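User: Could you check the structure of this?
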Amino acid sequence: TVLAALEATRPDVVVSAAAYTAVDQAEDEKDLAFAVNATGAGKVAEAAARLGVPVIHLSTDYVFDGAKDGAYVETDATAPLGVYGASKLAGEEAVAAANPRHIILRTAWVYSPFGRNFVKTMLRLAADRDEIAVVADQWGNPTSALDIADAILHAAPKLIDDRNFAAFGVYHLAGEGDTNWS
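Assistant: Sure, the predicted structure tokens are below.
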């Protein structure tokens, strides 16, 4: 059905943003997480390749184990700790195998004025409670979904207009400055 939908619309580039994102729940729904994040991502990239168009795929910092002292770079070895990260890494691999014209954007701690996210949850809880308990041992770079969209809008024309574009691969796209949840 993915190929039929893309054939009907004939896009110039495909942005693959669909994902199973319930990190903790993925431990109990491994098959579903892998079906969406790995198999689904691979099918989207495969369909784009069949149409001869590049794909921009969104991934996550959960492909790493968090043990590195400092920022991860694109060439660092991956080592996901849970099902969610493993399913997203499998998705990256499926996308890369299916479509050589791919950009994989690894992002982190996404927040937005739309949908569900950590920031909106904390604001809602703060309105109802005097105290909120969260873990403080996880560090990350909050990243605005609006910045991610802006980056995609800047990258897409380059992929479309430049048939000699050769910078396909994996990129990290995260907000500046790190923090923890406390």
